[in-house]
Amino acid sequence: MTPSRGPGRRPGTPDTRGEVLTAARTSFADKGFERTTIRAVAASAGVAPAMVHHFFGSKEDLFLEALAAPFDPRVVLRPVVEGPPDELGLRLARTFVTIWEDESRREPLVALVRGAMTSEPVAAMLRDGFLRIIASVLGPAVAGPDPLLRLQLAISQGLGMELFRYVVKVEPLASTPPEELIQRLAPVLQHHLRG
Amino acid sequence: MTPSRGPGRRPGTPDTRGEVLTAARTSFADKGFERTTIRAVAASAGVAPAMVHHFFGSKEDLFLEALAAPFDPRVVLRPVVEGPPDELGLRLARTFVTIWEDESRREPLVALVRGAMTSEPVAAMLRDGFLRIIASVLGPAVAGPDPLLRLQLAISQGLGMELFRYVVKVEPLASTPPEELIQRLAPVLQHHLRG
DNA sequence: CGGCATATTAAACACATGGCCAATAAGTCA
DNA sequence: TGACTTATTGGCCATGTGTTTAATATGCCG
After folding, report:
1. Is A1 exposed, middle or buried (0-12, 13-18, 19+ CB in 10 A)?
2. Between helices B59-67 and B38-45, what is the axis angle to 10°?
């Protein structure tokens, strides 16, 4: 077992804060907000629970920081908007799926979307933060009336798919290669956004 | 305040078990599994917390019973399968949205889908129970290769939309009339299932 | 009526949780 | 070196949780 050091600062300059954050990110993505305990996060990072409160104020603050910036939608979505409108769905599908295939970005995303299902504050984050920004960037590229509604339907398709894939883990969806998902998603997104 | 009766059986023949179940269903749909407390359910039903364990064994048993049978997919989906294949998407969209508009059936559905995001056992219920049955009924009506994948994509679109609508509550989706949702959903489902 | 099963309660139990505090060790800088 | 800041710990607290137990009141059946 670990020799269980007593109190006092550790020798060297370990990035304890970062390790706590990483452990938290994994746990939040894995078990959701409620079932993630500060004790478990601390244990997984190999430190005392009080460290979490030392570096971050509360569990909610930890959560916010763990979710912060899986990517900047404004940057990622720019190339999606700039391009031939009749391939908007394809570009969005490809960008979307690619991001979700990157594990380091998937974890905060799973944590965010899953958290939104459980906690109203997190739902508000998704609704008034993330979706709002996405709408402002992608909105102008949407054709026809009710652009917001169209956008939300498109995104709900994408998120629903990823939820099924990575949270519910239903087969064969969970094992389908990304490229095929892109091909299946593209026409649907295209129809929602410009049909 | 209520006169706070002491212990002992109540006069009359009140359906306490049913009231507890109803309260539980609402709370599970409203706050999810973790944030639903037995005490709150009991209070909402106007009885002592111990009643919950008297009638149902544990919190998990309560949850399972609260989720049981919002409807029988085999019955509901039969008319969807029987009909012109080029309107399969429309019939499925209409049936799907209609069920979700009925509050008494929506509650257990929200609880189920939301629970699947948090708890693996519930995810298994959704995956190996619900989706399995749906696949067995709807499967034969799907055209082309990978019928299961097609079905899962279609359902993920539907559930994603309802999650956005009733859990995240994002506008304007949350306030869009059902009939419009049906019209927007229909072609997408049709494409997934028979495109 | 008498006796048993059932409903119902208050109280308590064991435990986990988030948060906080005081003490201690290590680094930093004059 | 010495003063000060920062990291790190064990231990504590108040709270809330699911669950159990013993006691009590009501209904039901012979």
Report:
1. exposed
2. 60
Asked if B142 and B193 count as a contact pair (C-beta separation under 8 A), the reply is: yes
Residue bearing the bigger pLDDT, A30 or B151: B151
What does pLDDT average to over chain A?
A: 91
Q: Report, as an integer, the average pLDDT of B27-31.
A: 89
DSSP designation for A8: S
Chain B residues closer than 8 Å to A146 by CB = 172
- Spell out the residues 6+ positions from residue A63 whose beta carbon is closer than 8 angstroms to its own: A24, A28, A33, A111, A115, A122
Mutating which of B168, B179, B180, B190 best tests the A interface, going by the most A Cβ atoms within 10 A?
Answer: B168
Average pLDDT, chain B: 91
Can you give the distance from the CA of residue A150 to the C1' of nucleotide D26 in angstroms? Answer: 60
pLDDT tens track for B136-192:
999 999 998 999 999 999 999 999 999 999 999 999 999 999 999 999 999 999 999
Q: Is the pLDDT of residue B42 over 90?
A: yes
Phi, psi for residue A10 in degrees, rounded to 5: -80, 150
- Mean pLDDT value of segment B84-105: 95
Taking CB atoms and an 8 Å cutoff, what residues of chain A touch B192?
Answer: 184, 188
**What are the helix (H) ranges across chain A?**
16-31, 38-45, 50-55, 59-67, 73-81, 88-101, 103-118, 120-124, 131-138, 147-163, 178-194
Question: Looking at CA atoms only, how far is residue B149 from chain A in angstroms?
Answer: 6
Q: Which domains does chain A have, with CATH numbers?
A: 16-66 (1.10.10.60), 70-194 (1.10.357.10)
For the CA of B37 and the C1' of C16, the distance in angstroms is: 15
Whether residue A114 and residue B118 make contact (CB cut-off 8 A), yes or no, is yes
Looking at the predicted structure, is the pLDDT value of residue B2 above 80? no
Interface of B with A in 28-67 (CB under 8 A): 32, 34-35
Q: How confident is the model at residue A11 (pLDDT cuts 50, 70, 90)?
A: confident
Residues B151 and B92: their CA atoms lie apart, in Å, by 11
Cα–Cα distance measured from residue A194 to residue A81, given in angstroms and rounded to the nearest whole number: 13
